[in-house]
Amino acid sequence: MKVTRPMLAAVAVAAALALTGCGGADGDAKAVAAVPSAATGSLEHLAAEVKCTPNMQTDADEIRQAICKNADGKFILATFATDRGQREWINGAKDYGGHYLVGRKWVAVGETSTVNALRKTLGGDIEEGTDHSAHESGEASDGATHSGH
Asked: Where does the signal peptide begin and end (predicted)?
């Protein structure tokens, strides 16, 4: 199956919106104490590390993506064929908010508390998506009111 950038962007949007919505986080703000080296391996290997059975959503050469759920919560787990493909996916997805745990050629997307818990096992770096909650009132920074969002 040939996966195009628009298809990957659509998957990223769906993942971010399904798990985090357009609003802010209500998760755990505590710093994670000891972070292990970032895990490596297949999607199935990473899922096994965090004790979830992946529900595959996309299985292509460029990206493999699954919905996972474990004791820490529900999250999206994706693996990528290239570092560039991963970075393009993350950059597109971050426009829709969310919390991203990023390792080498993999990413987990979920609520803050879930991402922090996964980090204790998988390692990686946490990245935050754009918070659009300030735009919900319809007021611009110049005090003008705009319709739409």
From this structure: 1-25
